[in-house]
Amino acid sequence: MLFGADGGYRLTTPEPAGEAPAGPDAPAPAGDDPLADLYTREEVARLFGLPEGRLRYWHRSGFLAPSARRGRRRFYTFQDLIGLRAAKGLLDAGLRLADVRASVEAIRGALPRVVRPLSELRVVAEGRAMLVRDAEGTFEPTTGQLVLDFRVEALRDDVVAALRRQPTEAERRSAYDRYLEGCRLDEDAATHAAAEAAYREALRLDPTLANAFTNLGNLRFRQGDETGAEALYRQALAVDPQQPEALYNLGFLALDEGRAEEAIPRFEGALAADPAFADAHFNLALAYEAVGRHGDARPHWETYLTLEPAGAWAEVATRHLEKG
Predict the structure, then answer these.
(1) Closest C-alpha among 76, 95, 96, 94 to residue 84
(2) Is the terminal CB of the chain with fewer CB neighbours within 10 Å at N or C?
(3) Looking at per-residue confidence, does 117 or 104 come out higher?
(4) For residues 153 and 113, what is the distance between their CA atoms, to the nearest angstrom?
């Protein structure tokens, strides 16, 4: 469901997706606790957007190697992922690989009990200095450029979003049933809590059910929590970047706060996914008008009237066309 220009709602029904193929080369199964799971090179490459060849080189060179074994295969642990994220952050910040290696060796020399410095210590930046913080305080193993500071909890969320196993077909069906139950319950403010519980159970069964994130966001919005609503719409887009309702709702929030330039690509994205989305045409036209793009607004006023000739905002659309 989504909120529209007239405050109404539209029921949305996601297409059920097929199960991921299984086989001897399938990734190590992921559970509900990312800290306890093992990750393949392919999964880690996907999580961090790194070429597998780079991970292979880091492994062979002894820089950052997967530390767990299962039979003859090597896997990355969550602790390894912390080190990989730190290394990627250092490199993205402009530090050369040779300097990163030198920093790691300097840390090992200063703290010989530390086996994996990038994984076990907190690497932070102060100005242009690379600093390492441990229980004893802060020290600088080498100098260099660095902009890096992250929370382990954020990495855990990323792992869950990117690598959690695909739900079974039975779980998808049960999740969809719970989603529909939430749609039924969230029409009445008296049953909003039950609706939220239904949506969250749907997401527990199928974390890829983007519409459930969107509807949770709508509940937050209707309760006056726009910040919470926006976060949930962004979660929906993390699962399905082309979900029209989440795109539209983010555009609506931006336009409502006077950020028309930011709203425009959201509405355009919603219409690319669903060209018959009447409220998106209406609000995109409003956003275009707000930034002086009157010629771009006109076809969307016209399309809105074609789709909703007796809609709540038909009179507004007609007035804009008559002015132009």
Answers:
(1) 76
(2) C
(3) 104
(4) 25
- Helical axes 152-163 vs 41-48, angle rounded to 10°: 110
pLDDT digits (tens, 9 = 90+) for 204-239: 999 889 999 999 999 999 988 998 899 999 989 988
Residue 134 sits at φ, ψ, to 5 deg, of -135, -170
* pLDDT-based confidence at residue 1 (cuts at 50, 70, 90): very low
Closest Cα to residue 312, out of 267, 275, 282? Answer: 282
Contacts 24+ apart (CB under 8 A), 90-93: 90/123, 90/130, 90/146, 90/148, 93/125, 93/145, 93/146, 93/147, 93/148
Q: How is residue 85 written in tokens?
A: 């994220």
Q: Does domain 168-323 have CATH number 1.25.40.10?
A: yes
